[in-house]
Amino acid sequence: MSRQTWIVERFEDNGVAVLERDDGTTFDVPMEWLPQGIEEGHALSLELSGDEEKSTLTFTVQEEATAQRLEERLQSCAGVHTQAVSLCERVG
Fold it and tell me: Collapsing DSSP states into helix, strand and coil, what is residue 10?
């Protein structure tokens, strides 16, 4: 059994979700394989189990990792906003 963490990078118009690992590796999967309510940016645990004759992929939302990623993105946006306001004040 192997477990990996992937991030939902984006959804394509053809019904495919593009997942990405921290190392930049991407993996395209049909959206119907993913848990209900999944959104871009969600962290997923991908578990591979089985043997040479039959393998099973199981996707599970990592709630804590997803919340942490959202917080980091919000802080990053806040930092960019603060820098832009500071620049505008110096120029204006």
Answer: strand
Query: What is the structure's pLDDT at 9?
Result: 92
pTM of the shown model: 0.67
CATH class of 2-91: mainly beta
Determine the straight-line distance between the first and last CA of the chain, rounded to whole angstroms.
59
Q: How large is the C-alpha radius of gyration of the chain?
A: 18
In the chain, which ranges are E strands? 2-11, 16-20, 26-30, 43-50, 55-61
Tell me the sheet residues that pair with 60.
45
Q: Enumerate the domain spans of the chain.
A: 2-91
- Burial status of residue 8 (CB atoms within 10 A of its CB: 0-12, 13-18, 19 or more): buried
Spatial contact of 45 and 19, defined as CB atoms under 8 Å apart: no
Q: What is the pLDDT of residues 29-79, one digit of tens each?
A: 999 999 999 999 899 988 888 888 888 888 888 888 777 777 777 777 666
